Amino acid sequence: MLEFRQLRYFVEIVDAGSLTRAAGSLHIAQSALSQQMTSLEESVGVRLLTRSVKGVTATDAGWAVYRHAQTILKLGAETRDVAQGAGVHASGRVRVGLPSSIAMILAAPMLNEVQKRYPGILVELYESPSTYLAAQLFDERVDLSVVVDKSPPPGLATMPLVDERLYLVQARPVRKLPATPVRLADLTGTPMILTTRATTLRHMVDAAFAEAGVTPQVQAEASSIQTLLTVVAQGALATLIPFSALSWHAATRALAQRPVEPEVLRRASLAWSRTASMTQATECVRLVIIDVVREMVSSGRWCGTTLCEPAQ
C-alpha cells in the first residue's frame, strides 16, 4: 500500500541525486530507504529510479510521480494550517513568482497588504527571468506568477492585469530632457545596454526595433535589472524598460526616462496552473495581488500603465 512517507523519501532521493545523501538527510539507514523505494515501485507498478555509478536519477515515470508527490506533500504540510485557520483566518504558505522588473514595484506593497489582511499567510517570493515563470507553474514550484508572455501557454489560467509602456532610460543630463516621446527610428546611433535574451522584454524590444527598421547599437547585456540600471546611471549607455523597473532603485534619481514611439506595450497577467489545486491561502493572495495592482495604477503609483480589465 502506498504510504505518505514513501513519497517524502522519494522526493528527497530525487532532490539529493543519491541514496546515501538522502539517507543522511532523512536520518535513516540506506538499506531501509532502499527497501522503501522498492516497496513504492511495487505499489505503482513501474520503475521510478535509475541507479548508476554517478548516483540516482528519476525515470520518465519517476518525474511524473515526483511532481505529483510534491503536490501531495504540499497539501499535507498545509493540512494543519487549514485546520487551525478554518473559520478564523486564512493561513499557509504561498509561493509567488515575479519577473525582476515587476518585483521592483509590486513585491513590497503586495507583501504589506497580505500581512495586513492575512497575518497567518507566509508568502515566498521567487524572482526569475520572465521566460522561466510559466515553467515554474507547470512544475508546481510556485503557486501564482505574474507572467509577461504575449501568449501564455495552454494549461495556465490567466487574468490580464496591466499593459506597461516602455521607456528610454538614460543617465540624467545637466540639461533637462524634453518630456516628449522619443522615436525608435532616432535611436540608431544610441549605445545601449539591454536585458539578455532570456527575457520576454528583450524579445519585445528586438521586435519593436525590427518593425521600425532600426538596428540598435547594443554594447552590453545584463540579466539583472539592478545591474542594468546601475550601468545606465553611471555611464553613457541607454536602455529600454518599463516604469516598474525604475520604481525602487538607488540610481533612480540619476536617471531620466522618456516614452518611446511607436508605443511598445508589455502585458502583465496573473497566472496559475489549471491542474494544480488552489488552496484558500493561494486564493487570498491572488485577490490581494489584483487589488494592489488596481490601486497602484488608479492612484498613479504605477506610471505608464493601463488596467486591462476590472478585476472579477
Structural description of this entry:
The protein has helices at 4-16, 19-26, 30-44, 60-85, 100-117, 133-138, 200-211, 225-234, 280-299, and strands at 49-52, 55-58, 92-99, 121-128, 144-147, 156-171, 182-183, 191-195, 217-222, 239-242, 255-261, 265-273, 305-307. By secondary structure, it is an alpha/beta fold. The chain has 2 domains: 4-82, Orthogonal Bundle (Arc Repressor Mutant, subunit A); 90-312, D-Maltodextrin-Binding Protein, domain 2 (3-Layer(aba) Sandwich). The strands form 3 sheets. Strands 3, 4, 5, 6, 7, 10, 11, 12 and 13 form a 9-stranded mixed β-sheet that branches. Strands 1-2 form a two-stranded antiparallel ribbon. A two-stranded parallel sheet has the order 8-9. It starts with a helix and ends in a 5-residue tail after the last strand. The model has no long low-confidence stretch (mean pLDDT 86).
Please, what is the average pLDDT?
86
Query: SSE order, as H and E?
Result: HHHEEHEHEHEEEEHEHEEEHE
Radius of gyration of CA atoms, rounded to a whole number: 23 Å
Largest sheet: 9 strands, mixed
Q: Judging by the overall fold, what is the CATH architecture of the largest domain? A: 3-Layer(aba) Sandwich
The helicity comes to: 40-55%
The domain count comes to 2
- Rounded to the nearest angstrom, the distance between the terminal CA atoms is 44 Å
Counting DSSP H or I runs of 4 or more residues, the number of helices is 9
The rough form would be described as elongated
Instruction: Assign the CATH topology of the largest domain.
Output: D-Maltodextrin-Binding Protein, domain 2
**Name of the CATH class of the largest domain:** Alpha Beta
